[in-house]
Design goal:
Blueprint: H1 2-5, H2 10-44, E1 47-55, H3 67-77, E2 85-93, H4 101-116, E3 122-125, H5 127-135, H6 148-153, E4 158-162, E5 169-176, H7 181-186, E6 193-197, H8 204-215
Parallel strand pairs: 1-2, 1-3
Antiparallel strand pairs: 3-6, 4-5, 5-6
Length: 220
């Protein structure tokens, strides 16, 4: 190549190189860019330490929320580095009246998969799907996580359920007002919703403190 380029002007050399080696160079550059992108994403990837599912959330895709800010603050309050860890939120679960049958079926499948794989710790749902969610018997007893003072304060907002498997009654879900700082910042629901802690949460501290913040019982 260099022998052929002897005696050429700079412009001729560039033209010659592009004509014969341009494609190869572009392929190599593309491969390098892909490799660098993969490395950067891998380095920046954060470990999922907890999961949240939102059933029939009313959040608009274009709506600005404080979700990332509030999640990072919650992690930091529990001495979990938010730069290396994250809380996964699945807000695409849509089930019930007015929902396309295909979308609803897909949402139910996603919901079951997340719960069975222990990828979620706390769930929020609107009232329309509350009872169906509870009947799935995938929720722990809130009395095992909340202190007596909170349980007494919200006695009228707790939904109890008697398990068909064990016959035991559990405090399955609790009503959450949209007026707390947490819920106003998240904008997950425009009205009341219900929250429950999934059986055997992978990070119960995150689940409990998120619930307390959602209720407006923990300052941040």
């Amino acid at each position: 190549m260099f022998e052929k380029m002897k005696g050429m002007t700079l412009k001729q050399k560039i033209g010659y190189y592009i004509e014969y080696y341009g494609v190869i160079t572009l392929v190599i550059l593309a491969a390098i860019i892909v490799a660098i992108t993969f490395i950067v994403q891998h380095v920046q990837a954060r470990e999922q330490v907890a999961g949240v599912i939102l059933v029939n959330s009313t959040t608009m895709m274009t709506e600005e929320t404080k979700e990332q800010e509030y999640m990072n603050d919650l992690l930091a309050s529990l001495d979990i580095d938010p730069d290396k860890n994250e809380i996964y939120v699945n807000g695409g679960i849509q089930i019930g009246e007015g929902i396309d049958a295909t979308m609803a079926a897909s949402s139910i499948q996603v919901l079951q998969t997340l719960i069975m794989s222990h990828s979620v710790d706390i769930a929020f749902t609107d009232e329309s799907y509350r009872d169906s969610f509870i009947r799935n018997e995938c929720l722990d007893d809130l009395r095992d996580y909340l202190d007596d003072e909170i349980l007494e304060k919200y006695a009228d907002d707790i939904i109890y359920f008697t398990s068909t498997e064990t016959g035991e009654e559990i405090a399955a879900m609790i009503r959450v007002s949209p007026d707390s700082k947490w819920m106003q910042g998240m904008k997950w629901y425009t009205g009341d919703c219900y929250a429950g802690i999934i059986v055997k949460p992978q990070n119960k501290d995150v689940a409990v403190h998120m619930l307390l913040r959602a209720l407006g019982e923990e300052e941040f």
